[in-house]
Amino acid sequence: MSTRLRNLIETRFGLLVAVFFVVGLLTPGLERAPDFVISIAIASIIFFACFRIDPKNLGETSAAKLSAYYIARFIALPIALFYLSELLTPSLSNGVLLLALMPAGVMSPAMTGLAGGNAAISLGIVLVSSLLCPFVTPIVFSLLIDTSVHIDPFGLFVSLSCVVFIPIALHLPFRKESATRSWIDKNNTLSTMLLLGISVALVAAKQRDILKYEPGIVLTQLLALFVMFAVFYVIPWLTLRRFHIRSRIACTLSSGANNSLLGLGVALLHFSPEIGLFMVLSEVPWLGGLSIFQNFIRKQNFSTPLPRDLS
Question: Which residues are paired to 308 by β-bridges?
């Protein structure tokens, strides 16, 4: 592949997602692909992302403050959003809870670094939220969801564990193998983008009927999703205003740039088609929220740092 085409793919993230989404809608027969193919693609994304992580940087982060952030963002906030959704949009409450429980995105440390945030804090949030997600998600669902709604907590645990833990374990032998590591370092971003595109295309194909015949559902879900992602960005940004700006950026991006694709794969295996649609549509405000926040940071004047930090 030419360098020019590679750079085009790597720098046009939003355009790539949109193109694959349209391909999924228009390609006949794609909806017959097994659901587990999407989970394999997501696990592969996590595999490649593991090579971006340097565990040595974790020593820069306060365990107590990191734990407090995790509880607030990945347990308390999802529960609060679930009950709010039960009042306003009950049909989406399971999707709201699932999306809010998903861990920080594996690419958020890199995004944090580019935005001038503390990448070590973002890395800590990614590792803690990802490792706990397979345990916390089934527990929260078993406690909150009405027994008349059939959701298998153990099935959730198995699916999440396979997608999270297996790629982490598989990448370890290759970290110090020079030839493989060199190829992965060179093609990491490109491979991740293509795997993301494949996942989006497959999900779009599987949700084709709802997208085609029930536009009201799409609009309602998009509205709810934009509100959700606004909450993901605004709450950590405002509540951490007394902390160092680099910590605020890291925590805000780790909240908003979550691993929605992981939830998408789980939704197809364990939830209704409507919740599957909700998860695939989450990519729209995911991209929009990230772009808006990055533009917001670029326009700010943070020449006078605040005294406190999470590290």
Answer: 243
Q: Is residue 213 pLDDT above 60, yes or no? A: no
Q: What is the mean pLDDT of the chain?
A: 82
Print the domain residue range for 159. 14-299
| Residue 304, domain member (yes or no) | no
Give residue 307's pLDDT: 45
Residues with Cβ within 8 Å of residue 175, at least 6 apart in sequence: 51, 181
Q: Is residue 128 part of a domain?
A: yes
CB 252 within 8 A of CB 235: no
Q: Looking at residues 207-232, what average pLDDT do you find?
A: 84
Q: How far apart are alpha carbons 121 and 66 in whole angstroms?
A: 8
CA 223, 294, 251, 284 torsion-angle sign? positive
Query: What's the rounded Cα separation, in Å, for the pair 9 and 198?
Result: 13
Q: Provide the domain count of the chain.
A: 1
Question: What is the pLDDT at residue 129?
Answer: 93
58, exposed or middle or buried, with CB in 10 Å at 0-12, 13-18, 19+? middle
